[in-house]
Amino acid sequence: MLDTTTKRRIDTARDILVGKVPDPKSQVEQITIALIYKFMDDMDLDSEELGGEPTFFSGEYEKYGWRKIFNPSLGGFEMLNLYSEAILKMGQNPNLPQLFRDIFKNAYLPYRDPETLKSFLKIINDFSYDHSERLGDAFEYLLSVLGSQGDAGQFRTPRHVIDFMTALIAPKKNETVLDPACGTAGFLISAYKHILKENSSNYDKTDPYTFEQNNVKLAEITVNGKHYKGDKLSPDDRARIIQNIKGYDISPDMVRLSLVNLYLHGFTDPHIHEYDTLTSEERWNEFFDIILANPPFMSPKGGIRPHKRFAVQSKRSEVLFVDYMAEHLTPTGKAAIIVPEGIIFQSGTAYKSLRKMLVEDNYLVGVISLPAGVFNPYSGVKTSILWLDKSLAKKTDKILFAKIENDGFDLGAQRRPIKQNDLPEVFRKLTEYRDKLMLGEDVDFENEVLVSLVEKEKIEENGEFNLSGERYKQQITTTSQFPYVELKEIVDFQGGSQPPKETFIYEPKNDYVRLIQIRDFGKNPIPTFIPESSKNKLCKKDDVFIARYGASLGRICRGQEGAYNVALLKTIPDEKKITKDFLFLILQSDFIQNKIIELGNRAAQAGVRPSDLGEVPIPLPPLSVQEEIVAEIESYQKIIDGARQVVENYKPKIDIDPEWEMVELGEHCKIKGGNAFKSSDYVDKGIQLIRMGNVKQMFFDKENSPSYLPQDYLNIYSDYVLVKGDLLISMTGTVGKEDYGNVCQIDVDQQFLLNQRVGKFEIQTEQLDGQYLYFIAQTDNFRKQLFSNSSGGVRQANISNKGIESISIPLPDIDTQHQIVAQIEKEQKLVNANKQLIEIFEQKIKDRIAKVWGE
Questions:
Q1: For the chain, which residues make up each domain, given as ranges?
Q2: The whole model's pTM is what?
Q3: Residue ranges of the Type I restriction modification DNA specificity domain (predicted)?
């Protein structure tokens, strides 16, 4: 696994470069070049210490040795000029093997700041090469900063997905392996590690895969955490494996990174070729036992001019890549390929021809649907994995479909670890299916949720060869007492219109109507009005809408009157069969919500389509029963609404007696500021640091991007340790927003460390009760004084320790303070009871709707 020190050095090197080299790929290239440069000099040093001669830096190139750059007699610009000249000439150094010359091909220094270079090289000089496995993991972490290479349609594949695909295909030591769009060689290294693992004496078949890891950041997952050495492999085996693993990429930059990555993972002679897989015929006659790839999703600007040897004629890169990989498998070859959803269901001629070839010519074994956000934050594109196996496909008349809804990480930009992970269970089902097919045994997935089988005949029926597994799922079977009908039998759908934005006004006016948008159903709607027109699609307050696009996809809303826009789909029920109120409830059920999300994600751009919605079945009680169900749920909703009013409107209120003494807070309490801890000190696990983002009014937010410091910092920085009961205040915010001055109290029995710009209240006298101060600090008067005492520039507002200490607070005697605290705590118990009431009755509503479905 990647050690914290190495990770921190990589982060620091990037932090140094970011001001001069903002592009992440260029940062990676500069760090790569410097690491290899130092590595060669270290090997020369080892040779000299053993009594030998330097290998790389000798003759006219001796002056470029890494140690020469650190000569203290060199001035800043002399050092810069020597380093810049060295990396330019390294590609012509005859002492270097061809691999290293390829790495330095076209290398250059993109900035001319000697101080930046000096700081950068000092960090690189601290790297240790004593453990090649660790260095390889470090480079994998470095490559994780690479995201989208958008114009080429390339998205770096998450490590756990790569490992899932590799484990499924299970390459063997004597098999040839190819990635024809290899990028940074992630799939090739995963294949190599898998072979090492299978041939290691310390390998236990129960060992977890990387896709089974929980609570590990996505960027820090490594292939070989247990350090499998492959000790069962002979030297000939190892040489053959390195010869058998090959990659192609059209980009010279990616080729360079692949070469380095493979070298650092033990490949002394990596085989990565700068090659245009789609237009060149030079390697057409090379075939492979294993192909693993995530090829580009988009055709480059200017298009592609493929040669004529492809079975499917197309100019779409994703079609051609899949064709290429299928055609370049050996007779027993296997492949796992990530593809965009267009491959799965689009109706274009090339897409249908490709699917037809995969099914009829016995390439395709299965299709594994991935979550739509698996490539976040770089792309939300929906993808699937095509599982090809020319031996298995001939043994069955079915195609397997698997659906992964959670991959162990949330689908936001940060891709934080979560508990839900379908990968291990799906992998178990797929390997069970694979193994039984090989033995000629039957497999039954009839009652499975994540995996299903569909006859090839059914897929071929209408000539579309659609590979969307949901299309073939049996109608849901439940114990519902009511008959099922498809929505199209009882509901029509009508899309809205989109008037030009230049016609929008924001105040009501004659001959204008309200434009209803999804945001109008939120807490802070912005009323918009448009001219009356026959083109407007109008709605009433009781109409039920489905949000059909974007982040709001599937949201069911009602309660607005006007003309609705294209993001909303109006439902028009046959009210002789279904009431609007019941339709509003049933559309919010989990089954319908999941179905809408699935249908929306399936479409490339258009969002959920009425024709697809119309095929969704729902249970349909008689009208009288519908009315009873609605009345029951409305009674629950009234309780929820009342409880929510209590929760949202409650604030602790203190009736100030004019007789009470008014004192400055500083007379009885001091504000202690936190320490300026550096981000470079952060570790994966340790003592949580309380930063600005962790302080929210009236509660301690334990889930807001936690940062950790080493455990021994509790002793080193004992003055900044926080414990249960401590009161904190945020001291910096945005001008005009009043998003600071929030007060929280630590309510968990553990220790923390205090960061800068967070203040801790330290009570100095017995005349001030801590809980009383906590409640006073939340009053409007306290916050009003706080903001009037703040200062700052154009954007940032700050409140100083003295500014907080100068706030006037009412100070009754200590007994009165205790009485006030007791009363407020009693009120808060009632507020918390209302929160529980909301939870209880929200669950009652869910349970009642679920009962309609027979659940």
A1: 1-129, 131-474, 484-620, 661-811
A2: 0.58
A3: 484-640, 659-836
